[in-house]
């Protein structure tokens, strides 16, 4: 193995580890908001709005109800975010070589290159995020007690796989890919563009940017992602909580889901649950990027 390939492998390991730290931080900061968002998206006849969903979740499930399905994202999101940052950092180095960036200097990418790098990271991430989110949303929308269909993540996976195979596990994968492609394109474009601008205007190295600014840039990245991708997320959630066959199945596919949502709820149906989503965007993504950046600095 050459020194260059050895360094590249070690860099990839560090990117993965730092991404995992960011992912775990994201789950703990954002899971309660995500539970409310998913319930509003998929059960419009049950909840009148954000505060009604919060009140009923507390009433029916207690405080732990906001963390229903946390085990799956805690493992899965850690893996997902490590994939995102691994691919994003690799793409940044690749575009840096294309741009003839001098050795030892941080690559400066164009907005198109940043979006393309983020979109690539999103597509790679979707292979894991699709099934992880599918299991999570099914657990999030069920109430606790004897009426619960699934006892936990493992039971949910077993039941779905036994009846519907791998295709069942990957239900809703098309809108997941579309959301990840555009969402992470905008996500990393926003964050990296702000970081590049700060480095250019102050002459500081990336590691010298303050934690407060990293958190602000992370929050901005979260808003950029969700404000441009939320309707796709609604379709994804509806498909992933829909029945698999027969009378229990409401939607034949993504387009049918989109059409019926607009028909039954109007255009506003594509934005149900966006309030908790945007409330989540700031703390969850600030935690993601501060976790990643601090881990990278510690790992060297």
Detail the topology: elements first, then pairings:
Layout lengths: L2 H40 L7 H12 L9 H28 L12 H31 L11 H17 L3 H30 L8 H30 L13 H12 L8 H26 L1
Helix pairs in contact: 1-2, 1-3, 1-9, 3-4, 4-5, 4-6, 6-7, 7-8, 7-9
Oligomer state of the chains in this structure: single chain
Rg: 20 Å
| Coarse morphology | elongated
Q: By helix and strand content, what is the structural category? A: mainly alpha
- Tally of helical runs: 9
N-to-C SSE series? Answer: HHHHHHHHH
The CA-CA distance between the termini, in Å, is 22 Å
In total, the number of strands is: 0
Provide structural commentary:
The chain is mostly helical. The chain is 75% helix and 0% strand. It has helices at 3-42, 50-61, 71-98, 111-141, 153-169, 173-202, 211-240, 254-265, 274-299. α1 packs across α3, α4 (111-141) packs across α5 (153-169) and α4 (111-141) packs across α6 (173-202). The chain is elongated, with a radius of gyration of 20 Å.
Offer a quick outline of the entry.
By secondary structure, this protein is mainly alpha-helical.
Give a quick set of tags describing it.
single chain; 300 residues; mainly alpha; elongated; disordered N terminus
């Amino acid at each position: 193995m050459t020194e260059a390939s050895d360094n590249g492998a070690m860099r990839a390991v560090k990117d993965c580890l730092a991404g995992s730290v960011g992912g775990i931080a994201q789950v703990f900061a954002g899971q309660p908001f995500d539970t409310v968002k998913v319930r509003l998206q998929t059960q419009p006849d049950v909840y009148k709005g954000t505060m009604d969903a919060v009140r009923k979740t507390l009433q029916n499930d207690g405080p732990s109800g906001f963390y229903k399905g946390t085990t799956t994202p805690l493992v899965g999101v850690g893996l997902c975010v490590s994939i995102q940052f691994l691919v994003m950092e690799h793409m940044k180095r690749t575009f840096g070589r294309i741009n003839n960036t001098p050795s030892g200097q941080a690559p400066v990418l164009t907005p198109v290159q940043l979006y393309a790098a983020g979109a690539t990271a999103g597509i790679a991430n979707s292979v894991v995020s699709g099934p992880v989110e599918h299991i999570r949303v099914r657990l999030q929308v069920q109430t606790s007690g004897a009426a619960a269909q699934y006892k936990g993540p493992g039971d949910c996976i077993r039941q779905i796989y036994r009846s519907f195979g791998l295709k069942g596990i990957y239900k809703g994968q098309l809108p997941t890919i579309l959301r990840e492609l555009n969402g992470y394109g905008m996500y990393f474009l926003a964050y990296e563009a702000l970081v590049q601008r700060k480095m250019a205007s102050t002459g500081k190295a990336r590691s010298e940017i303050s934690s407060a600014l990293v958190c602000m840039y992370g929050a901005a990245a979260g808003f950029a992602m969700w404000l441009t991708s939320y309707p796709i997320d609604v379709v994804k959630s509806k498909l992933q909580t829909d029945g698999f066959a027969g009378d229990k199945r409401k939607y034949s596919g993504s387009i049918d889901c989109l059409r019926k949502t607009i028909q039954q709820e109007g255009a506003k149906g594509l934005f149900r649950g966006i309030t908790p989503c945007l409330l989540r965007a700031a703390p969850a993504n600030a935690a993601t990027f501060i976790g990643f950046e601090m881990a990278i600095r510690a790992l060297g």
